[in-house]
UniProtKB/TrEMBL annotation:
Catalytic activity as recorded in UniProt: a 2'-deoxyribonucleoside 5'-diphosphate + [thioredoxin]-disulfide + H2O = a ribonucleoside 5'-diphosphate + [thioredoxin]-dithiol
Keyword field: DNA synthesis, Nucleotide-binding
Organism: Catenulispora subtropica
EC number annotated for this UniProt entry: 1.17.4.1
Protein name as annotated: ribonucleoside-diphosphate reductase
Domain TSCPD: residue ranges: 10-74
Pfam families, sorted: TSCPD
Superkingdom of origin: Bacteria
Similarity comment: Belongs to the ribonucleoside diphosphate reductase class-2 family.
Top EC class, one word: oxidoreductase
Length: 88
């Protein structure tokens, strides 16, 4: 599937999260009612946790741009040990 090109400006929302004792933020950008991009920030600038969060957000965004479903990522996170109530 071809990559979906997003407009330069799009609607997004940011929420604060805490997973495994690490605080961070998740920003979700939507276009046409679907989640199209995910930005994750955690840890201090330049830290391993910050780099990992950014890489995971980028991987999710690339998958979404190529047709992956957000529900598949959610299921994968549950398999990795996150409880479903942590993902609401």
């Amino acid at each position: 599937m071809a990559q979906v090109r997003l407009p330069r400006q799009r609607t997004s929302e940011t929420v604060s999260v805490s997973v495994g004792g690490y605080g961070g933020r998740v920003t979700v950008a939507r276009e046409e009612g679907r989640v199209r991009e995910v930005f994750l920030t955690a840890g201090g600038h330049g830290s391993t946790v910050a780099g990992l969060a950014e890489a995971v957000g980028t991987a999710i965004s690339l998958g979404l741009a190529r047709g992956a479903r957000l529900e598949d990522y959610r299921a994968a996170l549950v398999l990795l040990g996150l409880k479903d109530d942590m993902l609401n």
